[in-house]
Amino acid sequence: MATAAVLISFILIMTSVTGTSAAALLPPPPNTSLITTFLSTLGFHDAAPAAINLPGATPITIFAPTDSSILTCPSCSLPLLLQEHSLPGLYPLHFLGKLAFGTKIESLAANRCLTVTSGGGAAIPKIFINGVEITKPDLFNNGLLIIHGLQGFLSHLSPFSCTVERMTTLSFPQQPPPTTAFFIMRLMLKDAMTRLRISGYSIVALALRAKYSELSDLKSMTLFAIDDETTFGGRGGGGHAYMAELGYHIVPNRLLPAAELLRFPIGTTLTTMERDRKLVVTSAGGGGPLAPMRINYVKVQRLDMVYNNRIVVHGLSLPFH
């Protein structure tokens, strides 16, 4: 009964959004107590207590070992084992299946990497994490936390796990896989697009999709967005002008959350992806609703409406001129 009550409460939290603001539609960030509860509820009773060492403020993916798998490594430290089998960022099964054979991704344990391989010859290939099969994929996914179930023989990761293993004859692709930062940016872009779609900014989400490969190369970015109503309403040039000049609304390689943006004095300039065109703070922030911040004389009306560890999105009343 307790398990059922916990599951019901999760469903209510995730679905009781009718009549709330768009910001309330965003899923709450994971925290260690919730992660522990999720793992326990999903049947990972031995691994659940070890989640206390996992970070609770960033998106993560956990490859949770079953209780029987943990028995295969009686000398393993469970807290360390769970850190080694957890990744920063979101890695659903369909994304893992697209990675090159032997791709290495740095785990939450320092200098320890998980190796992703696939095989089986089936229409939907099996995915293995360090040789252990994901037998229960995508058990939980709320947009900030993904849990997969692992079944197999476990061990701690090698100190050489982030390089080609020196003690085996396994061959790996000669070309190294993209960096972890590249993967994280791609995941944060997908996260931002999902949040924009459910917040009334679906056209902006489509625009990001169109520039996905270009934006993936950035380390971080700040985006100024207009909502669908403004896009279709045609105010101030509307969506056609915005879509054509999306790069003019992006500050590349700078994460400018509201706390930092509002401190800029009048006259502060911001470099955009169109390098010959800059943004200028024309009204400083901190004045409240009656005296909002303006950039290029356009009101910034929604601050931090999307915010993850690579991307922040602020809402505009009109496109920039």
TrEMBL record:
<dbReference type="InterPro" id="IPR052806">
    <property type="entry name" value="Fasciclin-like_AGP"/>
</dbReference>
<feature type="signal peptide">
    <location>
        <begin position="1"/>
        <end position="22"/>
    </location>
</feature>
<dbReference type="InterPro" id="IPR036378">
    <property type="entry name" value="FAS1_dom_sf"/>
</dbReference>
<keyword id="KW-0732">Signal</keyword>
<protein>
    <recommendedName>
        <fullName>FAS1 domain-containing protein</fullName>
    </recommendedName>
</protein>
